[in-house]
Amino acid sequence: MSQYVITGGRRLEGELQIDGSKNAVLPIIAATLLNEDITYINNCPKILDVKIMIEILEQLGCHIEWQEQTLVIDTRHLSNYILNESLVKKMRSSIILLGALMGRCGEAQISQPGGCQLGARPINLHLEALKKMNVDISEVEGIIHCKTLHLQGAKINLKFPSVGATENIMLAAAKGEGVTIIYNAAREPEIVDLQDFLVSCGAKVEGAGTSTILIQGVTRLSGTTYQVIPDRIIAGTYLTAAAMTRGTIILNDVRNEHLVTMTEKLEMMGCQIIHEKNRVILSSPKVLKGINIITEPHPGFPTDMQSQMMALLCTCQGSTFIKENLFEARFKIVDELNKMGAAIKIKDCTAYIEGEKALHGETICAKDLRGGAALVLAGLVAEGCTIVKQIEHIERGYQNIILDLSKLGAHIQERK
Ligand code: EPZ
To answer: Is residue 125 within 6 Å of ligand 1 at its C-beta?
Structure first.
């Protein structure tokens, strides 16, 4: 199993390009099943989750190839609706293939999805919504079978603004009969990107980014050429890395409107941030003031940045807390950070962090994607050498984290 070996103490300084968004491109790849055509997805990140999604679609009969950073997906010869169990178990977002397959062929078979162990992560909201759209759903020994002869639009009021459930409903409704209205929809930028992609294929969708999304089903969608939005969580991760080391960073190809929830927190801590057209510049003073963080659905502070901020807060002045409202088990890095000299205690869904802790290098384990990235950030400032194990979690969402951080001056390498 590969490991990252990091020698801490180097101030990060430099300029990076930001890749396409994992959480935008995964539902967009699923959406290509809705057309019987060829789709070109530009700025597609070459990450493990995309690789898994490609394998799933190929097993459904799609032909997929890379043309540099463009993913070319030919969905004309779909021949299967049974999703490969071992692949589905590797990735939570495989669940949104249900909605796409309902729209394409009216039938799908899937096992309970896997992915980051952040808590129970039930799929009740997904299944309840599809049932309202006239989908028959049965479950035998963990295998879920969905079938509909007539996909119908419906009014769906989500009990929670679930990102995945919102996406699943949009995918099913795009070719359902009649109008679907999603109330209490998720408002993340990735939902807006999915709407823009679907519209570019000829779908009738409006309202993404607000709590109410309206979809008018159409009979046919075509292929398209589409540029995926940049990954706001990768951008936030690298901004936090620069702040950790009290460095300076320039990120190009960002969408600043997607970053403000994060950058305003870094500014409150004392970082100087400049937002220019499609780039953001951060420089950090020697002393940063700790602040409290409460994660919420967009436009609140993103849960996917919670672990990275925890690592940063260990190095800032003052005692702070992080309240995690989205996932009940997203504090797995606390034990690893405490091994490195942090002083973090958990009570219910809140982590209490003592500031200005000098971290020292240790051998630690990534337990999930964003927690793994946060442990790399801790290694950047820890005294001595840090070894991060189980890095396959990190590779699910970061295409070039070694190359990127090395470009900024970090001393990091992969040991096979
Ligand atoms: C998406 O996951 C993202 N993944 C997650 O990013 C992100 O943390 C999350 O949204 C919240 O922003 C992708 O887009 C691939 P949810 P998703 O449904 O769709 C509960 C990363 O690191 N819930 O909004 O699974 C659920 O248990 C990943 O890139 C139900 O109860 O998130 C959780 O507590 C991690 N029933 C809350 O809603 C359901 O049917 C938020 O989940 C569905 C969700």
So the answer is: yes
